[in-house]
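**Protein record**
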Amino acid sequence: MPISAQAKVVLASGAGYRSLVDDLSDSYTKDTGNKVERIYGNMARVTAQARISGAVDMVLGDKDFLEKATLSAKTTQPVGTGKLVVAYPIGASYQNESDLLSKSITRIAIPDTQKAIYGKAAMQYLRGKGLYNKVESKLLIVGTVPQAASYVIAGEVDYALINLTHAQKISKSIGGYALIDQKDYSPIRIVIWQMNNAANEKECADFMAFLKSDKARKIIARHGM
């Protein structure tokens, strides 16, 4: 893989995958010298920026969401499968979904249900399990996964529905987390999407090649995907 200290690629990602993208990017830069400029936010904002700015080379996010966003892609590459979890603060616990219905539970944080992948997944889970009408008044809807997680860390909510990757990142700052059965929400297929108008095509190819390496796959697995 050619090394160029000045080369860079611009990668935009959903905020819930910041820890994954940071670890992949840092490892890639260490191996190649190529820099990765990173942009984070909820996926609606990320895809809009990628479409309008012309400054984004690649986008990491849910395949279905990216397809519906009608981004013009040159190539795509699978990264892994996203997983939804229930996270809870230090001193709390979670056994099963009946805990969400307890009278002692007053606030449940979830990401934006229209713009964030895990907000949508959370709504699918709650509605599919017949829980939504029972917990609607408890829901605190915020912008992104990290914002929902921050309320758990601060102990300001009883639970938050976030992704496994971010839950692992903050595991030392919360009480724990429990996986939600993947059959209870649509599959979250995380991919890297190279934009048709990517300005740094060679660097995109280098980064895509790195993602296929054993080192990258181990990083991705370590992040729960």
